[in-house]
Amino acid sequence: MNYFEAILLAVIQGLTEFLPVSSSAHLILFSEISGGNQNLFYDVSLHLGTLIAVMFYFKSDIKEIFRSIIKDRSLIRNQLSRNLIISSMPTLILGYILVDFIDVYLRTSLIIAFTTIFFAMVLYLATFKPQTKKDLSDISTIDALVIGLFQSLSLIPGTSRSGITISAALFLGFDNQTASRFSFLLAIPTIGAIASYLLLTAEWKDLLSYAEFNLLGIFISFLIAYATIDFFIRFINRIGFLPFIIYRMILGTFLIYFLF
Question: Distances from the Cα of 166 to the Cαs of 4, 160, 185, in angstroms?
């Protein structure tokens, strides 16, 4: 890996982690096109950068959760904390069970091509649902579980974690901004678990060997991810999801044409 590849990967991760276009798909495709083979610690760095970005952006929500945990001495007394835990569990459990199967059989350009198109259609259909719920406090335990089950589909490359969770929230009647906010907050336990898993399975000598690349990845992915979240939250009610749906359809169609 050289500095150009490291910067480009960090930009891709920062942009696509929170947009409904699938970060894993873009990273896999980039690796296949460039022939590169990034080290596992760099993957950790990119995830840490985006994790720090979402925690920093939603710091008021995080502070409120921690205040509640300290006050009530419980992780589930706070509604938002409880819902995030419930929503994250299906993906974490299934991801742990299916990680080898996914790596061997699903991380292919063909799978990405079809999931990119299929889940673009899912998001498109979700936008037609009447939006009657406009606050995070409207998310019930059942809503959280449904969103969590949808999120587990993001284990399939090309699905998009943010895209499928936003789709689920839209189907449940939440407006664009509330669906997006919960999706981004749900990234905290999900990405945190992924980063922890990668740290536990990586060769620690790589941490020192690639320290400059790892620090660069954290910094750039943080900046890009923070800017992406801010733009998305500010303008999603104005621009809607159609631009992302069209992009996914074009990308998937191009991949199918290229593969066949």
Answer: 32, 10, 12
Segment 4-19 shows an average pLDDT of 91
Structure tokens of 49? 């950068």
Quickly state the pLDDT bin for 40 (edges 50, 70, 90).
low
Residues near 131 by beta carbon (within 8 Å), at least 6 away in sequence: 170, 173, 174, 175, 176
Question: Torsion angle of alpha carbons 145, 242, 226, 8, nearest 10°?
Answer: 110
State if pTM tops 0.90: yes
Q: How far is CA 153 from CA 92, 111, 168, 209, 234, in A?
A: 11, 13, 11, 35, 27
**Residue 37: domain span:** 3-259
In the chain, the number of structural domains is: 1
CB distance 203 to 158 below 8 Å: no
Greatest alpha-carbon span in the chain: 59
